[in-house]
Design goal:
By secondary structure, the chain is mostly beta strands. Helix content is 0%, strand content 58%.
């Protein structure tokens, strides 16, 4: 699920390999947008509209942005992926990251943008972006979370270790948000910079979700 001030809420669901999506109202009807997927990722911004990426059963990544749901033009982005993550903002445009055989690659600015190799040896990737701070990419490598911000060629900062799950978000006022769930079930979060201090949130957590707001 995602939302922006102009286009409203975007909801996508995956059921028996079929992707359905709707935007503009939670009371609207779902449109069928893809068949044969095993993962979906969505984002939206007020300039570019909905961004939807699908990972097919055979490891291909396709993405579409800006079109009317149910009548979209899909771009083949990658072959042989295990995960796809997306984000978008009104200035920098669509950000797409793929994880393929431990290597994270990303592109931003358009569905036909050039790919940049970001990291090797990852088990998970999460992305965010905002109009002021640009792309934020996080990876999980053998229980350690690392992140980079501001450029697809930015430097990596080691964030935390002994982690089972993490997520990133970003907004133009407060900058990067990172949350990590360690192997003991403790949730911590930081905001404002990759070197910000961690703030304890709660214990006994099994799963969490993270999003950044607007002002």
């Amino acid at each position: 699920m995602a939302s922006d001030a102009i286009n409203g809420p975007l909801i996508a669901v995956l059921q028996n390999g079929v992707v359905y999506a709707k935007q503009g109202s939670i009371y609207g009807a779902f449109a069928t947008v893809w068949s044969g997927a095993k993962q979906i990722a969505v984002a939206t911004d007020q300039a570019h509209g909905p961004l939807i990426a699908v990972l097919t059963n055979d490891g291909n990544v396709y993405a579409t942005t800006g079109g009317a749901l149910g009548n979209t033009y899909w771009v083949h982005e990658w072959t042989g992926a295990q995960q796809v993550a997306v984000a978008t903002d009104s200035v920098h445009g669509p950000l797409i990251a793929v994880l393929t055989n431990g290597t994270v690659l990303a592109q931003q600015g358009g569905l036909h943008a050039n790919w940049t190799t970001e990291y090797t040896g990852a088990q998970q990737v999460s992305v965010a972006t905002d109009a002021v701070n640009g792309p934020l990419i996080g990876v999980l490598h053998n229980g350690t979370v690392l992140a980079e911000e501001g450029s697809l060629q930015g430097g990596w900062v080691t964030e935390s270790s002994n982690i089972q799950q993490f997520a990133v978000a970003s907004d133009e006022w407060d900058g990067p948000d990172i949350a990590v769930l360690d192997n003991n079930g403790t949730l911590r979060a930081k905001q404002g910079g990759l070197h910000a201090a961690w703030v304890y949130q709660s214990d006994g957590i099994e799963q969490f979700s993270l999003a950044a707001g607007t002002k």
